[in-house]
Amino acid sequence: MAQQQITAQKQQELQLQYTTYKNNLQQLAQKIGDVEQETEEHKLVLETLDPLPLDRKCFRMVNGVLVERTVKDVIPALKINSDGLKKVLDELVKQYKKQQDDMEKWKVSFE
After folding, report:
1. Is the pLDDT at 96 greater than 60, yes or no?
2. By the 8 A CB rule, do 43 and 83 touch?
């Protein structure tokens, strides 16, 4: 009887670990999706602004406030933000793959 309690407790711990791994992977996948969407939005805006004259006025949202700028001012800031998002995306993908590998190793250890 004591053996059954130990195995039931062990089974609950293993289920909790598995759920934790799955939740972490799901959260990372959600973050990756969000960053990919932001990157695509930046790319679209850059493609839209590229053919425009540099002295043309445009508007940019900065901390929730719409500010008037010129295309010449906005393009470099967008490129910097886009590059930063790509680096974040690469890091998140690495974290996801590592988490996935850790989960696979954990699964194999119990087979």
Report:
1. yes
2. no
